What does this fold into?
Amino acid sequence: MAKVRTQLVSWEDVVEWSRGLAEKVRASGYMPDVVIAVARGGYVPARLICDFLMINNLVSIQSQHWTEAAKAEERAIIKFPYEVDLSGMKALLVDDIVDTGESLLLAKDFIMRKWKPTDVKIAVLQWISSAAKFKPEYYHLEVREWVWFQYPWTRLEDTYQFFKKMLSEEAKYGKNEWTFEELVKSFMEWYEIDVGDKYFRDAVNSLVRDGFLEEEKGKYKLKL
Ligand code: ADE
It folds into this structure.
């Protein structure tokens, strides 16, 4: 039984889900003049949707979660609040997932006020209906129980973070030395996904480079 609910998403899944999402937009009769990719998760789906709907205009906005130093509370912010003129245009705001939906709501509000398109509709690959504050106009899959989707564009980042969490937990129970094979075996027990040998190697090497782990004669130890 995995300790963290995780599901691996392949590149093939992403293409098929984007195709399905584009079909829903087309079927609704909404014809966007411009696609807006929410950085960073919306980049790949947005580009694929441009292809499936044959749309040339693609811009981007970065909306992300920000943990305020003094508070446990998480806030979404627009990272680079530049302005572009979308007056007279219908926009499609594209992201990978609506989880709580906070960052997307913020992006939509910013775009309406500052970029002034005639309309903005939201399209995502996945909508976590049990966690989200709203239902997007278009989604490909409804997810009823929260899981972490391991998308291909965050494979290294997630593997790195997952290792960090796993190692800190195992260290609490007194373990402080692993071979590479043990690290991979534990990872697969914790998360029940296999990201492949290259990503496991890249993540472990990054943890060594960042001073979280140290390696000696094939054994890895926590450095902190
Ligand atoms: N980003 C925000 N929520 C996520 C989730 N549940 N899976 C993958 N990426 C996410």
